[in-house]
Amino acid sequence: MADSDDEQLRKEVDEVLHGTKRNQGPQVFEQNGRSDIKHVMGVISGKGGVGKSFVTGILAVELARRGARVGILDADITGPSIPRMLGLSGVHATGEDEMLVPVTTKGAIKVMSANLVLESETDPVLWRGPVVANAIEQFYSETIWGDIDYLLVDMPPGTSDVALTVFQSLPIEGVVIVSSPQDLVQMVVGKAVNMANMMRVPILGLVENMAYLTCPHCGEKIEPYGPSRLAETAESFGISPLGQLPIDPALAAACDEGTIEDVLPEGLLPDAVQTIIQVSELMDAALGRG
Ligand SMILES: Nc1ncnc2c1ncn2[C@@H]1O[C@H](COP(=O)(O)OP(=O)(O)OP(=O)(O)O)[C@@H](O)[C@H]1O
Ligand SMILES: [Mg+2]
User: Fold this and answer.
1) What CATH number is attached to the domain comprising 240?
2) With a 6 A CB cut-off, is 28 part of the ligand 1 pocket?
């Protein structure tokens, strides 16, 4: 990453950390008495549109298929895409005792998203920073999550205020970085790595999305961007490679139609799923939790 980029990011982080909010004390959002969230994991990227939400969805489905109790907090307040992907278009979250109740998918994944509390999901979200930060707090502290083993946080693109609020205020135990093949060449990954490092959030590893495609006729693996650089990029940052996903028109269609729980093949991103589980177990052991 260019030095100036680095400096800019550091400035943004400093502004948030040392701005007015900081003077009111560190903002740590608390769980409520009707939630028992054991582990919070984030999904981030260095730029938008590389498949964060898609990867969040895959990880949630895979963890749920293994019997874990999974929630998704859609922190992409102004561009939420989780509800549609999971077949919750047009569905509204309800309220109870002044708190929000997440919507549960048919695969038993609990979801809270701006799209579930807006009148119409095509309404543009024009909220300003503080309101957006407030929404994150509501989705975490004022939502009745119940028992959750893994709360996955789908992050907004880039290093916005919201991303920093999430890092600062939620007890994130690790982040998965999602990248596209071009990112691996252009060092976009470095931006995400730096952000996580500055916020002192452990990086679980790197997923390469849209890495290749499979010829529908002969099954040959085609690498339109050339051989993968996942391994060398991960190594250069000292992080783990967590697997690749192909460009798959059927999966893109499933995202649009809200059917990923039905059509996702079994066993996608096994290393990423395993890492989340292992890190969680290590945290439990370190904290003496059963
Ligand atoms: N491996 C894939 N194969 C086919 N389509 C994909 C794949 N990954 C993502 N897509 C499609 O690309 C689009 C962008 O993906 P997604 O919304 O997950 O990205 P994002 O990083 O969350 O974007 P944003 O930064 O806007 O939140 C979606 O329409 C999704 O269906
Ligand atoms: Mg997204």
Assistant:
1) 3.40.50.300
2) no
